[in-house]
Amino acid sequence: MSRIAKNIIKIEDGVTCNFEKGIFYAKGKVGEMNINVNPNFKIEINNDEIKVTPKNSQDQKNPNWGTTRALIANTVQGVSTGFSKTLELNGTGYRASISGSKLKLQLGFSHDIDFIIPKEVKAECPKQNLIKLSSFNKELLGATASKIRSYRKPEPFKGKGIKYSDEFIFRKEGKKK
Question: Which end of the chain has fewer CB atoms surrounding its CB within 10 Å, N or C?
Fold first, then answer.
């Protein structure tokens, strides 16, 4: 049996949840989302808590039980508080700026990279070498941050590139004479 799946999800104030025809709906102050739920599981919504339970006793060993519970928990947290990621640019001349819905990146290439930010993701650049992304959709936020990071991944010798703020880059020793 899954230990994570047995946990109850608390609903914060200002969040409304609904489950109809295999689709879970959540609406809060940050936004609204809906996700398709695996038909092997049912969702019970009481006062201020949500519980995910399998329909058959055979599905208690199904790993999708914990996954379903985690997806619903992320949806509820996303519409109530949201998620955020911070990216750092390390390197001489590496800069980021926002104009409208485009993120302009100068990463040492002969050309600038214009990245179109999805509607659900909010981006800001408090400094030239910081990018702060926030969204209510955890999956889309992670995919956007990963795509931006893929333009210039941090290299292990000098540490130049785009990295997450909480990421540790294992540094290698250079050539020896």
Answer: C
Mean per-residue pLDDT, 105-115 = 92
115 and 153 in a common domain: yes
| Helix/strand/coil (H/E/C) assignment for every residue in the chain | CCCCCCCCEECCCCCEEEEECCEEEEECCCCEEEEECCCCEEEEEECCEEEEEECCHHHHHCCHHHHHHHHHHHHHHHHHCCEEEEEEEECCCCEEEEECCEEEEECCCCCCEEEECCCCCEEECCCCCEEEEEECCHHHHHHHHHHHHHCCCCCCCCCCEEEECCCCCCCCCCCCC
Same domain, 18 and 63: yes
pTM here? 0.85
Please identify, among 80, 105, 126, the residue that sits at the C-terminal boundary of a domain. 80
